[in-house]
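Key idea: predict the complex, not the pieces.
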Amino acid sequence: MSPMFVPGPVDVAPEIMAAQSRPMLPHRAKEFEAIFHRAADKSRALFGTQSRVLLNAASGSGLHEAAVRNFVHKKMLVCANGAFAKRWHDVAVSNGKDADLLDIDWQAPLLPEQVAEAVKGKGYEAVAFVHNETSTGLMNPAAAIAAAIREASPDSLILVDAVSSLAGAEMQMDAWDIDFVLTSSQKCLALPPGLSLAAINDRAMEKAKTVENRGWYFDFVRLETHRLKDTTPATPAIGLIYALDLQMDRILAEGLENRYARHRAMADCTAGWAVAHGFGLYAPEGYRSHTVTTLMNTPGIDMPALKAFLLQRDTRIAGGYGKIKDTTFRIGHMGELTLADVQTLLAAFEEFMGKK
Ligand SMILES: *Cc1c(COP(=O)(O)O)cnc(C)c1O
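Result:
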């Protein structure tokens, strides 16, 4: 099968698929507890944290909801320059939180000084942003933004969605002083969908204990109590935990630096090709995602025809997302993909464009 160039769910390696289909174990069995423990433990390297990582059966959006319910009594800010941050704001509002929205141009990065200005003196309990906007192919400067928030509003928790960057681009949660980072399994981790990972530091955990009505399924305090016994309150996604355990070994064997460099090389290749062939890039230089590229359809390519052409070769790209659905399209380059895969895709594009 040819690879897919979509920003999730991505192709999963055959050995990971096989790991997922190993015989089930009861989740209270010692053998399973050992697997659960080591899978979570190894995944901390991706977050750059010594703190805990909670594994729960849900997609990443479940953790958008968990974050607002666990960390915020009332007042928070979501900083948005794309569709996924907007969603996080919607989630906060629909959970009854008093959530402000810093709503900026989708083609601009969130800048530290701008975020500092927005939080200063506001008493936000938490400030949330998205590291890598999958809609726009823009990677926000997470370290600098977090530093600016900490300085301007020291008591605010800093919450980061790293769904489409974690395991594809660097995250140093502890060094960057971020309190909470969430991700899901089906993007750069290259696992099947259905598992969410939440890294939570002690500051955030202490705050959660003071918040009422955290709910039940996503109550981080309850999940932590069970995690300390290498288990979960409800039935975990056993097959996905097997898969994570093996995938972490594969990721650590590749080496995080090598993995990040591979993603960056695919991004650079895609961007260079796009510019050379007359496509605009939606995200500005210096802030382009390493895991997904959003191209403007400047040459006016017949997208349905291109997609059909690619499907004949058993491969796929992604359309635009949110308000830029019709004017852009996306090439995902994450997970198991290599530079050679990207070059094959771009050669197919050229063939299609030559035919036109
Ligand atoms: C895909 C994505 C989400 C949603 O994650 P699900 O696992 O589909 O719920 C949230 N944020 C970003 C940045 C994403 O790319």
